[in-house]
Amino acid sequence: MSSPNFLESSPVSLSSQRRRKSAFTYRQLAQLATSATSCPLRVIAHIDLDAFYAQCEMVRLDIPPDKPLAVQQWQGLIAINYPARAFGLNRHVTITEAVKQCPDLIMQHVATWKEGDEKWAYHEDSFKNMATHKVSLDPYRLESRRILATIKDHLPAAPVSKVEKASIDEVFLDLSTHVHGIMLERFPELKGPPPYDDPTEQLPRPPTTALEWQTDALVDLDSTETEDDDPDWDDVAMVVASEIVRGVRAKIFEALKYTCSAGVARNKMLAKLGSAHKKPNQQTIIRNRAVHHFLSDFKFTKIRNLGGKLGDEIVAAFSTDTVKDLLEVPVEQLKKKIGDDTGTWLYNIIRGEDHSEVSPRTQIKSMLSAKSFRPSINTLDTAVRWIRIFVADIFSRLVEEGVLENKRRPKTLNLYHRQGAQTRSKSASIPMGRAMDETLLFDIAKGLLAQVVSEGRAWPCANLSLSVSGFEEGVTGNKGIGGFLLRGDEAKAISAAVRESSEVRNPETPPPSKRRRVEESGIQRFFGARQESSGGNSEREEQQDFHMKDEIREAHSPFDVPPSAQLASDDTPKAHAEMQSGHSDDDPSRYTCSRCNSTLLVTEQGEHDDWHFAKDLAADLAAEERTNTAAREQSRPSSTSSSTQPKGKGRGRPPNVVKAEKGQKKLQFG
Ligand code: DCP
Ligand code: CA
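A: This is the predicted complex of the input protein with 2'-deoxycytidine-5'-triphosphate.
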């Protein structure tokens, strides 16, 4: 907690005589009031929770702060508290090694949804049951939300302070406007007006006694700067921001018992590097005069947005991963090797220039619930049970998003299904004309699954996931649910919505929308995909779904229908009939389906029954849709909306069927 208090004791007279004017102008001060991204006085903070999941468990279980604890997910450790890190533990050690290195380690498994359960819970034996359990990050999301609410409560409302949730345990704060207000109160000389009413006039210098760096870590200055140099208003702004951040951190601890680390600097990129500089429970200020020195020691792959593919490309292009080396490269050469936009951006970023905005949009854009199956699952019954869990998982998150109060509501439900190398996705509109509940989502999801199954080749299934997307702001005040009724959407009831976005993918070539993005040049090429795949929220927030996200990314990327998928697509009842002709009816390896009189191999019975289920469900939903549409059209004859029939590729194509089915009987699902 020691902090150099150098500026307070600086000799006022000498330096202030040397430079009587600030380097900053009245105009630049005014820009601070509006949080202009180009303002050189700008102050941004990044707050990152220390060992977040581990702290959540410590707080939940009331474990003393000095006890080593790690959060376990199946056979791995995903969060390690600082006392455990003192034993050399990190995310890469195995559980066996961890216990060897730290015999007193408390290992807490993450909460899980147990197949068939209505709610997630902390199960003692979950780590042994990967096949029947699914990780739930709800406890951490809940804490994340409480922390965000505490931060927002503590700070003045937007637009005075802007808060951007950057991941499950990180936020950016733009404190510029707030700091500007405090500076004007503390230093009335800043209130102006500028001499000669000229905003380009320089400000008077701040009194040196104004500064008291109460920070835990103050990054060393650039070699050209000395501590004897008088502070300027950018230093004052940093001190004020640092006080605010200290207050926020104290409040989080007081209210919720979580510690966090913070960085304060002139932009997001520097603030983020700052919060990671000293951990846990510390804050670091990177004064403008210290930026170059601070950055030159870094590997540029640690910089925000340079951690992934772009960083790797730059390392390869310049055979170095250090900022120091890259600083030597002229901008023209950067542009030549990695493109004009990216080159210019990189040139600036390694010099500490980043004008990206703190975006207060903390709204979730999509929600995903997923499960990879090891071993793969083979029956519709099991798949439906998982779908039920996904729906419960997503719905509980929707409730927290305010779906019940109509604050926000997703428009689309998407199902992804993976079988071998083939990923299929189906989407449906969520009808806007009725209240959203779990049953509605479950019915739509089952309809989507039915589409997949009716196309055949559904099993063994290695991965299933469900997501909602296309969030719309709802209605506040007295408009009620009707506010969600959008022209055209009214007619899209459940089955009709299982529609055109049905896709079969194989990871080779991108679909048209993605191709366009890949062809984009410059920085967008790298960031566009990243942003899309993050679903507007933390990638880590879906931690257990990392691999699933990869698949979704894959699903949006390269595709060519593989031979197996083509076979499935061309797979007609006739083809099956031909394949199976000539077999004896009393062959014990065969059976005749009582519903459609098809002759099938006994081993095919499960899939065939599933197919009937899928067909039944699709037919029921279509009937329901017809009834709904007719009812709506009767009540509103002037309506222009029309019903859409299912257009899935697999329409009417049963696997292994000899004759077309007859009769339809609804199968009830658990
Ligand atoms: N997380 C995860 N798997 C990863 C990375 C992170 O499950 N590969 C989860 C667990 C972490 C949380 O996200 O607790 C936040 O990630 P951080 O990278 O911020 O790590 P911590 O908060 O655990 O530690 P630190 O104190 O270094 O920030
Ligand atoms: Ca963290």
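The chain has a mean pLDDT of 76. The radius of gyration is 30 Å.
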